[in-house]
Write a structure and sequence with these properties.
single chain, 168 residues, mainly alpha, globular
Length: 168
Amino acid sequence: MPSKYLLILLIFFMISCGKPQPTNEEIEKAFQEVNNETLWKELKEMVYMDQYYRGMSSGLDKSAPNYQKQRDSIWELQLAVDHKNTKRIIEITEKYGLTNPQRTGQPIGAWLLLHHAPEEYHDEIKPLVEREFKAKRMDPRTYALIKWTLNGREGLPELPESEIIDNR
């Protein structure tokens, strides 16, 4: 009997461990070794597509008789883009850390892809956001905004305590 419990415990342990997370040193090394131009181009395209249909939707005439149909069609396209972008930004962030202008020297707002991630990815993104913030690859305001989104956009985004300024 004891071996049965040991086997169950071992299986539980293996499942709960999931995939191994890279260390900050491994992430920085991978970031330094990546073909930056190829990655920057991919990220710029992802951010562009993130905004493309959103911009198109905001330009619709709300008084048009087919407004709702047009809006629904555009949002269906946007959702497909959001799913594709989210899967890829998770892969990129897991391997290279969050790319931001301070790290890349490029004006790429990759955080926007996490901000617009469909809800079904939120549980996967939460620990990634925590890791990136603790590693200082995500600034406090971006962290607060993404956490606010991941937690259902209730109330106002809360800055980490270290970022609150008391001007009394």
